[in-house]
Write a structure and sequence with these properties.
265 residues, alpha/beta, 5-stranded antiparallel sheet, 22% helix, 35% strand, binds S-adenosylmethionine
């Protein structure tokens, strides 16, 4: 039996999960991850698999994929998508667990955490925990790919300029009978730890009337190109590739920071 993190936290996505897949602005990362599958029988661990956006896209192209997430609400949606692709349990598994503390008997050829999952780890102790567990779970020669967003400005400017009042509209999509919007509010910043605390506000309108509002409180730890690389190296890994986005951007120049690394020799 696979072992999982034993501590399950409160699900901050309980009410918000059902809006997640409506986002029209997901990064175009699926071809990227697919191209980095080392073989068609590779074993893959996906940390923070959420609703299975990437899991179900990769599952038919690898030997085995295990998706793990902390949120029961996200996993419920993930499980129903996985059931539809109809692969045997030897090919795809989903479990609840904390990515800062996990263990598996199996080793993985590739470990991924798409769409900035790492940034949800608020404390450095949690980040250390994740990198320690990754090390234990990688197969010989295996690699891990982690991704964060590249901050829009330097650290000093972020510290002083991130916290602005008001709400910004991220996206809005039509749904049956109305529309759903997602905005963010910038609530707090920990300037020392470089953790930002945005709220995501989902609103569903029935016709013109507001029918529902759900607020999700997020924490996102910020990384810069050098600090991200240093973090990975400090945990005894060697970096094999780096990218700045999914459209061929150079590391440090695009919207994302993406590192692929393996256990150092
Ligand atoms: C932005 S979503 C990304 C979901 C998916 N990887 C994707 O690309 O669509 C972040 C996911 O990370 C999960 N997550 C955050 N912290 C976690 C933790 N400590 N352990 C496991 N999952 C976590 C959340 O529940 C959420 O599903």
């Amino acid at each position: 039996m696979e072992l999982q993190g034993d501590e399950v936290k409160t699900d901050i996505r309980d009410d918000a999960a059902r809006f997640y897949d409506l986002n029209p602005g997901f990064p175009e990362d699926i071809p990227f991850y697919r191209s980095l599958l080392p073989s068609s029988d590779a074993t893959v661990l996906e940390l923070g698999c959420g609703t299975g956006r990437v899991t179900v896209a990769l599952a038919p192209h690898c030997g085995f994929i295990h998706g793990m997430d902390l949120s029961p609400a996200m996993l419920e949606l993930c499980r129903s998508k996985v059931a539809k692709i109809d692969l045997p349990t030897e090919r795809v598994a989903i479990s609840i667990g904390d990515i800062s503390s996990f263990a598996f008997k199996r080793r993985f050829d590739l470990i991924i955490a798409p769409f900035r999952v790492l940034q949800n780890l608020e404390t450095i102790a949690e980040v250390d925990g994740l990198l320690h567990c990754v090390r234990e779970c990688l197969a010989p020669g295996g690699t891990c790919i982690l991704n964060v967003f590249r901050p829009f400005c330097g650290p000093d400017e972020l510290r002083e300029g991130w916290l602005v009042p008001g709400e910004r509209l991220n996206w809005e999509v039509p749904v049956e009978g109305g529309r759903v919007s997602c905005s963010d509010r910038r609530v707090r910043i920990d300037k020392e730890q470089m953790v930002i605390y945005p709220d995501l506000v989902y609103r569903r309108y029935q016709g013109l009337a507001l029918a529902e509002e759900v607020v999700m409180h997020l924490a996102m730890r910020c990384y810069y190109p050098e600090t991200f690389e240093q973090l990975v190296r400090d945990h005894g890994f060697e970096i094999v590739s780096r990218w700045g986005g999914y459209q061929g951007e150079q590391y440090g120049e695009g919207p994302e920071l993406i590192l692929q690394f393996r256990v150092g020799s």
